[in-house]
Amino acid sequence: MVHITRFRRVGNVAGLAAVVPLWASLIACSTTATLYPVEGPMAKESPLPVLTATVDGILGNTGGISMTLPSGERCTGKWSSIAPMSVGFVAGSTSGTVTSGMASAWATAFGSGVYVGNLPGVNRGEAILVGERGTVIHVEFFTGSGTASGTGVAKDNLNNIFKVLF
User: Can you spell out the DSSP letters for the chain?
Assistant: First the structure.
C-alpha cells in the first residue's frame, strides 16, 4: 500500500508538472503593437521613429505591456479590454475640431469624421505605460472579439500622438 501511495503522489506531481508549463505558456502569450507617430515632436523626426511594444497575456482580458522609447527610456504598464457594449462618440464638435482627450487623438490619427464606439464583436481596451523618466503613454484600442489584432491611438505627456496597429 505504501508503494501505491508513493506512485500516486509521483503520478500527480508528474501530471501537475506537465500541466503547469502549458498553462503558464498560454497565459504568457504575447504579441507586438506598433506605434506610428502622426503628430508631435516624434512625427517631425526623420527617419520617423516607429515604436514597438510587447503586449503579454493576450489570451485573456488584461496583461502587461512594455516598450523602450528611442531615448532609451523603458516604459511598462497594464492593458485591459472589455466585452462589447453599446457606447460611442463622434470625434468632432460643432466647430469640427476636437482638442482634448482621446477623441482628439482619434481625429488626428484617423480623420475628424471617425466614429469610435463599441459594437457587437468589437472589444474596447485601454493601456497606460509609465516610463522610468516620467513619460506617460495612454493607449485606447479596439480588437475583434476572440482576436489579438486591432487598431487604436496613443497619446503621451510629451505632445506626441500615435496610430497603433497590432
Answer: -HHHHHHHHHHHHHHHHHHHHHHHHHHT-EEEEEEEEEESGGGGSSS---EEEEEE-TTSSEEEEEEE-TTS-EEEEEEEEE---SEEEES--TTS---SHHHHHHHHHH-TT-EEEE-TTEEEEEEEEEETTS-EEEEEEEEETT-S-EEEEEEETTS-EEEEE-
Given a contact cutoff of 8 angstroms between Cβ atoms, the answer to whether 157 and 135 are in contact is yes
pTM above 0.85, yes or no: no
Q: Are strands 122-131 and 161-165 parallel, antiparallel or unpaired?
A: unpaired
Q: What is the mean pLDDT of each run of 10 residues along the chain (166 residues)?
A: 42 45 55 97 97 93 96 97 59 47 76 66 91 98 83 97 96
Quickly list DSSP for 115-156: EEEE-TTEEEEEEEEEETTS-EEEEEEEEETT-S-EEEEEEE
